[in-house]
Structure formats: C-alpha cells, structure tokens
UniProtKB/TrEMBL annotation:
Keyword Signal: yes
Domain of life the protein comes from: Bacteria
Gene3D superfamilies in alphabetical order: Periplasmic binding protein-like II (3.40.190.10)
UniProt record, GO biological process: amino acid transport
GO cellular component, one term: outer membrane-bounded periplasmic space
UniProt name for this protein: Glutamate/aspartate ABC transporter substrate-binding protein
Record PANTHER family: AMINO ACID ABC TRANSPORTER PERMEASE, GLUTAMATE_ASPARTATE IMPORT SOLUTE-BINDING PROTEIN
Chain coiled-coil ranges: none
Keywords annotated in UniProt: Signal, Transport
Family matches, as CDD domains: PBP2_GltI_DEBP
Signal peptide per UniProt: 1-31
Length: 308
C-alpha cells in the first residue's frame, strides 16, 4: 500500500508539473504571437488593414491608391516601426477589411494593425487594443433634405440603413428591442458604407445612420450633394483609434508616440484641413467639415480613452 500511495503521489506531482509546464508554454506562445515588432523584424513585412470606402479616413480613391486621413496616420506608424527596428526597408502588405472581419483578421495574424474608422470602445477593448485616439465624432444620420426627417424620433416605423458590424448596428438593434412594435424601424444592414449610401440614394431607406464624418464623406458621392443633409441629435459621442492586438505594449507604444507627436507638433491640424476642409480625391469635392472643440482638445492632449 505504501508503494501504491507513493506512486499515486508521484503521478499527481508529475501531472501538476506537466500542467504548469503547459501553462508556461501557452503563455509564452501567446506572448510570442503578440510580439508584433519581433514578427515584423523577422519577416521584413508589416501587414496593414485598410478600408475600401471609409471616405475620408481610409479608402481606395483609384485602383491601388489607398488614401485618407487615417491612412496617412497608418503610413506614419509604419515609418515609426521601421525606425524603431532600425530597418532600411520594410515591405508593406495591404489587406482590405470590413466592419465584420477586421477583428478576426487582426486576431488570426492576417493584419498587424489597422487605421480606418474603427471605434475605440470598452466592449472592443475586451478583444483588441487601441492606440491613442485619432478622431472624435457624433453619431448622426444622412437624409434627403426635403424628406421630412429631422431627428431620430422621426424614424419610427421607417426603413433605415446602417453598416453591418458597426456601433450603429448595435445601437439601432437595441433601440428596436426597446420600442413598441409599431415604432420599430425596418433595419437594412449593408456590407459597407458605400453600399449603405446607395441604399439611401436609391430610395430604399429614408436615413443612413452612421458616424458624422463618414456621412459627410458619403455625401460627396451623391449626384447632387445639396440634396442631402446630415441631421439629428447625436445618439452618442465616440472616438476612432488604430486597432492592434491585445497584450502587445511595445507595438502600441510605437503607435501612441507617432500619433502624439503628430498632434502636439501641430502637424495634425494641417492633416485635418487637407482631408476635411479641402478638395479630396477622386472627385475633388470638399467636405467642409469644421473642426470641433473635441478635436481641438484631442490634438492638445492625445489619449487612448474610450468614451463609451
């Protein structure tokens, strides 16, 4: 019996030791998988996600020409990574992303980071990390000027479009869940912002609910911009930031420092004027989107705080 007891105790010890070893290996693998800088240095490649139609943040102005306010910040982060690693050259692999697949593509390693029109909020922070914020905005709607829609209560029983996988998608679904049957909106979920605007412009929806600056961007696609207006009391105020993998402080530090330097040096003001108050490609139209007090405060005091 003594031998049997000793054997069982030995087996328990071995099992616990093995479990501990596996835990350490797992933690090590996780840390290694999230060491983006080491991955980039070893491969000589940085994988960057971009949006195809998030005007004026990240979009394809012409075939192969990815540009925009956020895209320029993305390019600066790439330069910051190159400098941090002491590399003379770095191959940039660009991958188109959507509101639905951006987090999975980041988590599975397809992209290393993205700067587009992704909201930095507490819910997403459970899955990913965010850089210093790059934009502050309100959640409004784009409607026909003479359509009679002035604010969100006017949408009761109406057909409304937004982009699938966005914060607006979640909030509108929540509003519907709390509304009486007669007041529920008929929600159309588009695959991207461009498709959402086409749904609005074709008359299949009376309002396109989205982030205010994106609505100004989509309005530039209209046959006549003056037919459309951005209206409403903001459902909430939120922030955009560049998105990266969790538990990778070294990579986040590079991105944060690049963004903070851009803002505190005054160069961010020129970047804002270029994309929100000047003609932009491909049509050379001007969004005429004034800088808010919130944006001025962000440029003066860069931070990564989520408002919601």
């Amino acid at each position: 019996m003594k031998t049997l007891h000793t054997t069982r105790r030995t087996l328990r010890c071995l099992t616990m030791a093995a479990a501990g070893t596996l835990a350490m290996l797992s933690a090590g693998a996780q840390a290694q998988s999230n060491d983006t800088l080491a991955k980039i240095k070893q491969s000589g490649v940085i994988s960057v996600g971009y949006r195809e139609s998030s005007i004026p943040f990240s979009y394809e102005a012409s075939s192969g020409n990815i540009t925009g306010y956020s895209q320029e910040i993305s390019n600066l982060i790439v330069d910051g990574v190159k400098k941090k690693l002491g590399l003379s050259g770095l191959q940039v692999k660009l991958t188109p992303i959507t509101s639905q697949n951006r987090i999975p593509l980041l988590q599975n390693g397809t992209i290393d980071f993205e700067c587009g029109s992704t909201t930095n909020n507490l819910e997403r922070q459970k899955q990913v990390a965010f850089s210093n914020n790059i934009f502050i905005y309100g959640m409004l709607m784009l409607v026909k000027k003479d359509g009679g829609i002035k604010d969100f209560p006017d949408l009761k029983g109406k057909t409304v479009v937004t982009t699938a996988g966005t914060t607006e998608d979640r909030i509108l679904q929540k509003m519907n869940g709390e509304a009486k049957d007669a007041d529920k909106m008929n929600l159309i979920l588009a695959k991207d912002h461009g498709q959402a605007f086409l749904t609005l412009e074709s008359g299949r929806a009376v309002a396109f609910v989205m982030d205010e600056p994106l609505l100004y961007g989509e309005r530039t696609k209209a046959k006549n911009q003056n037919d459309w207006v951005v209206v409403g009391t903001p459902l909430q105020t939120e922030t955009y930031a560049c998105m990266m993998r969790k538990d990778d402080p070294a990579f986040k530090k590079v991105a944060d420092e690049v963004i903070a330097d851009l803002m505190t040096s005054g160069r961010a003001g020129a970047l804002y004027k270029k994309w929100f108050q000047s003609p932009i490609p491909p049509k050379g139209l001007n969004l005429n989107y004034p800088m808010t007090e919130g944006m001025k405060a962000l440029y003066a005091h860069p931070n990564d705080k989520a408002i919601q």
